[in-house]
Amino acid sequence: MSPRVSPARAAAAAAALCGLLAGCAGTSASGDGQGSDTRFVSGDGNVTEYKAAGRKGVQDVGGDALDGKPVKLADLKGKVVVVNFWASWCAPCRGEAPSLEQVYTENKAKGVEFLGVNFKDSKANAQAFERKLKVTYPSLFDADGQVTLAFRAVPPNAIPSTLVLDRQGRVAARIIGSTTYSKLNPLVAKAVAEK
């Protein structure tokens, strides 16, 4: 005799499993920055580009940067903006930081801005990350994940993730997972070339 499972029980079991799997993203901000943390959700480096007619804007995004200064994404409208979601406890974030800094340095004279979003981290660890890796662009401190929620129209979906916003503040491209100079720089160049 085989046991029968009702559709309601199957749905409840599926929901519980999803909750457990989502728990891998963690919520603690006390990571040691050594990569032993279970909050990392891996991306595959997949790039998605969006045609201008189908691009989605982001809600009002703002908050305090790691240095305590207020930052609003709306203040950067009219510029191409690269938004990178990162955390000090994320090994791929450490790996991609030099590439991000290089793309930023090479493009800032063209009116390109970068904004990091430090996700579910401690402020001290995030500041140490920026000092050690010589990150010169600002990052919003998003310990509770509220800033990241403003990007729900085109969610980052993994740490790290990178969004390239056009001059109207719409998402032109998204990279889920770690990026490289050769992957990001052409996306930035395309957005800069748009009129």
Descriptive account of the structure:
There is one protein chain. Helix content is 31%, strand content 21%. It has helices at residues 7-22, 91-107, 123-133, 146-149, 181-193; strands spanning 46-49, 62-64, 70-72, 80-86, 112-119, 139-142, 161-165, 171-176. The chain has a 6-stranded mixed β-sheet. Strands 2-3 form a two-stranded antiparallel ribbon. Helix 2 packs parallel to helix 5 (181-193). It is globular and about 40 Å long.
Q: What Rg, in angstroms, do the CA atoms define?
A: 18 Å
Unreliable spans: 1-40
The count of DSSP E runs of length 2 or more, i.e. the number of strands, is 8
Strand order of the largest sheet: 1-8-7-4-5-6
Give the percentage of residues in beta strands. Answer: 15-25%
SS element count, helices: 5
Cα distance, first to last residue? 68 Å
- Indicate the structural class: alpha/beta
Report the mean per-residue pLDDT as an integer: 82
Mass-distribution shape: globular
Q: What is the element string, with H for helices and E for strands?
A: HEEEEHEHEHEEH
Largest pleated sheet: 6 strands, mixed
Helix content: 25-40%
Write the layout of secondary structure elements.
Layout: H1 7-22, E1 46-49, E2 62-64, E3 70-72, E4 80-86, H2 91-107, E5 112-119, H3 123-133, E6 139-142, H4 146-149, E7 161-165, E8 171-176, H5 181-193
Key features of this structure:
single chain; 195 residues; alpha/beta; 6-stranded mixed sheet; two-stranded antiparallel sheet; disordered N terminus
